[in-house]
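Researcher: Checking consistency across runs. Here is Multidrug transporter again:
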Amino acid sequence: MKKSSSWQHNLYFLWVGNFMTGMGFSMTMPFISLYVATLGHFTTSQLNLLSGFAFAITFLAKAIVSPYWGKLADQYGRKLMCLRASLGMTITITACGFAPNVAILIVLRAIQGCFSGYINNANAIVAASVPVDRSGKALGTLATGNVVGTLVGPLLGGALASSFGYRGSFFVAGAMMLVVFLLTMFFVHEEFTPVDKVQLQPMKQVFHTLKYPMLIWGLFVTTLVIQAANMSITPIISLLIKQLMHHGGQVAMVSGIISSLPGVVTLIFSPILGSLSDHIGPEKVLGVGLVAAIVCFVPMSFAQNVWQLGIWRTLLGFSDAAMLPAIQTLMTHYVPKEAFGRVFSYNQSFQAMGSVSGPMLGSLVANAFSYQGVFMMTAILEGFNLVFLVPATWALVKNGGTIREQQRAEQAKQGQLAPKTAHN
């Protein structure tokens, strides 16, 4: 298979893998508390605590373990880590359906988090093979797989739970992850030479060799903030919608629609804005995306009805669509390929920390101030992130190190060399 078509072949199957992984991971989320309630007799406070712990433990485990898997990815290959993740999730998600009590469920959810990592390794495989001038569009397209799966997952999970019970949803999710394992094994190809453990450069040394290390840390923090911002309304969205609808109407349905609006927009526009970043530079797209997020979150805190909230949530999807591919593209360009596995795994750790810290901050702010206060808190968080990222990106501009400037310099160099070669 030619290299020019190999990355496109991988992109197709890894998109399917990301889609099914996102769907399998999210389809049991809406009823996790209801499932916990069937595993014993609990008071309301106990149920809230156990449900929250069962939800958060997966992300906590993922945040802790991801760097270790990233090291193995750089040593033995990213495809192997995709296989490890999909097979591990096949076993753990299926086992959750057999959980006899809540303690076993929590342990299995923790193990599931330990074995996660399919999506970040899929990103690393594509990033390592895609041409630089097409990385934005390719990684933006790949990101939509997870977005679509995360959107569709809760709908499918709810339908399965209604028809076959809560345990049946876990069994179907496990079967889907088995399909992901088989697709990856037989249809994803990676050219990788194993690296001896002694020759593998320590991560601390990798950061010392980076030309712009603060940029990479800024991207990690941005990933955390994006995820925390998206997840911050998870605990309070239905309560806020109920308040805005004056305790009447289809609260559950409207809450689902409002929650999914940014994801739908991100799905549609992520490849488009990823392609735009290939033409004007991901640094500019990322900066504009952060400013747009702040502009969207501030008016949300003053929303008086669900229509106003829905409009600003829709516009927020453009911000996510701009930032997600830009982050992946920048990491691809400014990190050596031999460290892709670890860097993308670190990024996943920060994303997982955002998944935990976002709902916690949202709940605290809602209790201390108001539901709308959560949006203002998120806008402030995005503002701090922008302040942190600006010096790092300014260093690129000042030193002529932006991706577009480097590409122009390379094109100019080739233009100068061409006549000389022809003359000889």
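Researcher: Does this match what you'd expect to see?
Model: One thing to look at in this run: The chain has a mean pLDDT of 84.
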